[in-house]
Amino acid sequence: MDTLNRFGHLNVPPNGPFRFIALDVETAGKTISSICQIGLCFVSDAGFIQTYSVLIDPEGPFEAFNTELHGISAETVIGAGTFPTVYASLFEVLNTHNLVQHSTFDEKAMTAACARYGLPMITSHWTNSVTIARQAWPSLKGAGGHGLANLKKHLGLEFHHHDAGEDARASASVILKAEEVLGAPLSYLTTNRQLTFPFINRSER
């Protein structure tokens, strides 16, 4: 049985394939590449969800504002892997599935972290759950908006905001609830596995 963290997330990604994977990151400081946590929510064809999260040593300082927001500090990540190590272990599953993010911050952070370490960025198709939420609940525009905090209240979602695993699960839940409102599943979120290519850590060449 997998060891669980404080919110009950898996410490080892489950076996796929999956219909889609929601991804969220938390950062240590003002630099968008300073990822200190990655959270993933794996969604099956039947709508069954499993959440995974992992801490990352950002190899840089933590800003007080960021730590106050997500509760992760330099002490929290002692013994955690660096981004290249964690990313290498997740590369295949991320690169072979459709990905969901709430806003575009997560994709930008992953791209920046890959650039920082000279790693290949995943080539998966990204869906922004904010865009889907706007289609499903247009009345929220001007009434709190479509951020996770407001959607939490409007949709009755239960999650701990600003934990990467919890936010990934919330983003996945937004997609599933939006599909119910829209009356059909999003056609491009399917379990057809995408083509992949080998992970190459250029920094080790």
Automatic annotation (TrEMBL):
InterPro entries: Ribonucl_H, RNaseH-like_sf, RNaseH_sf. It comes from the Bacteria. One of its GO terms (biological process) is DNA metabolic process. Residues 19-184 form the Exonuclease domain. GO terms for molecular function: 3'-5' exonuclease activity; nucleic acid binding. Signal peptide: none annotated. Pfam families: RNase_T. GO terms for cellular component: cytosol. SMART domains: EXOIII (SM00479). This is DNA polymerase-3 subunit epsilon. The lineage of its organism: Bacteria, Pseudomonadati, Pseudomonadota, Alphaproteobacteria, Rhodobacterales.
